[in-house]
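Researcher: Please translate sequence to structure tokens.
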Amino acid sequence: MKKYGLIGYPLSHSFSKRYFTEKFEKENIMGSQYELFPIENIDALPTLLKENQELCGLNVTVPHKIGVLNYLDRVESGAKAAGAVNCIRIGQKNVNAKHDFMLEGYNTDIYGFEMSLKPLLKEYHDEALVLGDGGAAKAVKCVLEELGIRYKLVTRKPAPGNLLFNELKPHHIARHKLIINTTPVGMSPNIDECPPVPYEAITGEHLLYDLIYNPAETLFLKKGAEKGAVIKNGYEMLVLQAEKSWEIWTKKEDQP
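Model: Translation complete:
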């Protein structure tokens, strides 16, 4: 039995477990299963691996996307640039590995976000506001930099170069026609909440992207749609990053 799974804490709900379980059934992938491994402290990872020798790959979610870097033997360039890993490929034992397994880190969020964003971009989406600067924002920033889109971070706490939410004015919205929410504000069950943005300045040229996928239309997106903006939630990004994870886990050993 080949085993895959998700580490993070808490894991009260999981897109990944449902997605991969359904994938295995629909595609008749035999001898594989996907499990949840709620570990509060990333220090528990070596023990988890020893107790689950069948593990071939792991997805990583909050709060371990950064801390897990200390346990990896190799990190691909995109994950290094982001400073965060959300996918681990567990290879065969290697005498040079830090642990009993060769652990390779990847960031498939970068791929998922880029592939879901690019088809929606227009020439005037050349400046972006990124709401939040936590772990979820790391992949977003990497993609924007790769695409040559200038961005401004908007945060609750002061940081050099950032805007504060209470400093946001209509002229900021008018200038930045791409607005990406990387915060959990508005996620179920708190569906009546939204980031404090001057929504009155949003126009039909704006593109609002919310990394949240539950609910499908957050209040942030709803307010944007009411002003004629193009809106997108994070569901397709999740699907794309999940498929990229599967591609990484099942690649042949002799591939780079």
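Researcher: Any highlights?
Model: DSSP finds eight helices and twelve strands in the chain.
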